[in-house]
Amino acid sequence: xxxxxxxxxxxxxxxxxxxxxxxxxxxxxxxxxxxxxxxxxxxxxxxxxxxxxxxxxxxxxxxxxxxxxxxxxxxxxxxxxxxxxxxxxxxxxxxxxxxxxxxxxxxxxxxxxxxxxxxxxxxxxxxxxxxxxxxxxxxxxxxxxxxxxxxxxxxxxxxxxxxxxxxxxxxxxxxxxxxxxxxxxxxxxxxxxxxxxxxxxxxxxxxxxxxxxxxxxxxxxxxxxxxxxxxxxxxxxxxxxxxxxxxxxxxxxxxxx
Length: 257
Hints:
- The chain has about 260 residues and is an alpha/beta fold.
- It is built from 7 helices and 15 strands.
- It has 2 domains: about 1-170, UDP N-Acetylglucosamine Acyltransferase, domain 1 (3 Solenoid); about 175-255, no CATH class.
- The strands form 3 sheets. Strands 3-6-9-12-14-15 form a 6-stranded mixed β-sheet. Strands 1-4-7-10-13 form a 5-stranded parallel β-sheet.
- It is elongated and about 85 Å long.
- The N and C termini lie far apart (about 55 Å).
- Residues about 185-190 have low confidence and may be disordered.
């Protein structure tokens, strides 16, 4: 029990720059208090002391402002940061190393008793303030849920869910887009991740331009290689683009920056 408490305290010290001492964490962090009370409530719940489990959970809600059903399963090193108004449903599962901010709801969309109604969070998931994750699906390891997002479908590992209803942004796709845009001298993060038609068009333009420039560069490199192998004078024009080039200034002018 004490080793787990030490782990909980250490994870808060590691993730919250405002946490200064162990004593401060033990006495002033309601997220830690909620976890300690939940473990007692969960023990009562799993040993058929249902009412007592609910009562301890109710006391925890009254003391901390965090409502965790005693049937919920919570892993190690979970950090409820501020966490006022957090609601965790009966069949919810929270994996090791997760971080959950204030106003988050891990809720259900089914009224059938005994069914898996609430979400399962994998390891190291971050759920932003005010987010609602509703349903008996899984949020993969290392995923992120943006503030005020409403998630009603599974989130792949490493992906980010934003908006209402939430849109899934694949980590690999987003990273490749930003890397390509940076190489072109344009920041993809200047394009908002929302449903604005201009934003969507700009994201598509970045992806398309990156792909086309790469293919053109490969073609010119292949032509140059063939010319050298035949020991003839290269027929490639002097101004031909053998490297990937993108006119970032023109793109910037298009969006009015």
